Amino acid sequence: METYGFERMVDYLLSNAGSLMHHIPMVRNLFMRKARQAAYEYLIKENPDRRPIAVQMEKLQITLSLMETAFKRMEEGLYSKNVVNRASKIVIEELMLEPKGKTRQAKEAFRAQYGRRPPGFLVIAPTLKCNLRCKGCYAKSFDGSSGTIPFSLLDRILTEKTDLWGSHYVAWVGGEPTVYRSEGKDILDFAERHLDNLFLMFTNGTLIDQEVAKRMADLGNVVPQVSVEGFEKETDERRGKGVFKKILRAFENMREAGVPSGSPSHRCDTMPNCLPVMNSSTSTSRKRRQPSHGSFSICRLAETTAWI
After folding, report:
1. What are the helix (H) ranges across the chain?
2. Peptide linkage before 175 cis (omega within 30 of 0)
3. I want to staple 246 with a disulfide (CB 3.0 to 4.6 A). Which of 86, 134, 150, 206 is the partner?
4. Residue that wins the pLDDT comparison between 88 and 15
5. Domains of the chain, with CATH numbers?
6. Whole-structure pTM value
7. What pLDDT is stored for residue 298 in this prediction?
């Protein structure tokens, strides 16, 4: 009975961690222990796709690094209140605790019908349109007159994903998600309609102005991943003159608003040396030098896109 009561207390603290972890060290420590345990159980012990253990260990290290970086930024007060409360609630309740309510029912029904756990997230390109014409990118092959999923259809897909899979995660790819327009709606309207979902958005960042960044911070469930080749020379060579400066402005806008962000890339010849410097020298707070976002380089793109 005492054990059951303690477990209920732990679940309560974790499910309300977004509003508590700033002030209670015990909650912060409890959160990280639970996060490490959940990641290890799923990636190493369960390993549902039976991947080689070396691949799974690499995924585990990246996952733990990202979680710890996000946790530190949260503790330092670099994220908006809504990001702390909403994003952490989604991650903790749906990933680190046992599924409850409709989420649990959906997962159990899927497993009963198909003999395996449902997909954990959906990767989708809402539009193939883009405001850039980067070298080697398929998006520039489209004339801009087609390739956009209607808002009502995509809204239905997201609803059914949550209801039928018990999934609360979406990865936006493109094209460029921030140019999405359909039925008078934009890409952030999906986040507003589906506040129980966390949206990872791969973007070129050039359209993230102060207004867009503030809206992301107010929503609290959008995490942009801004593509960058390296320093100004490498980035502008592929993406166009002036793009690098726009990316830096986007990061500053997100930092000021309190939006978590990152920089994924498969350009291993330039990124490992460039990103740490960018992270420490170009994005600093007013009070002291500190990174505004967690940068990371995805070198083995084919191995990692399935689990981001």
Report:
1. 2-15, 17-20, 25-40, 53-75, 81-82, 88-91, 101-114, 151-160, 187-193, 210-219, 232-239, 243-257, 271-281, 301-304
2. yes
3. 206
4. 88
5. 2-304 (3.20.20)
6. 0.77
7. 32
Give me the mean pLDDT over the 105-127 stretch. 92
Task: For the chain, give percent helix, strand, coil, nearest 5.
Answer: 55, 10, 35
Query: Which one has a higher pLDDT value, 163 or 99?
Result: 163
Specify burial of residue 49 (Cβ count, 10 A radius: 0-12, 13-18, 19+): exposed
Closest CA to 217 of 183, 253, 263: 253
**CB count in 10 Å sphere of residue 243:** 22
For residue 41, the SS3 value is helix
Sign of the Cα pseudo-torsion (232, 141, 151, 159, in order):
negative
Task: State the Cα–Cα distance between residues 294 and 246, nearest whole angstrom.
Answer: 18
Please state whether beta strands 122-124 and 169-172 pair in parallel, antiparallel, or not at all (unpaired): parallel
Please give the mean pLDDT across all residues of the chain: 78
Distance CA 184, CA 187 (A): 11
CA 306/CA 112 separation, integer angstroms: 23
Higher confidence at residue 304 or residue 90? 90
Amino acid at 171: A
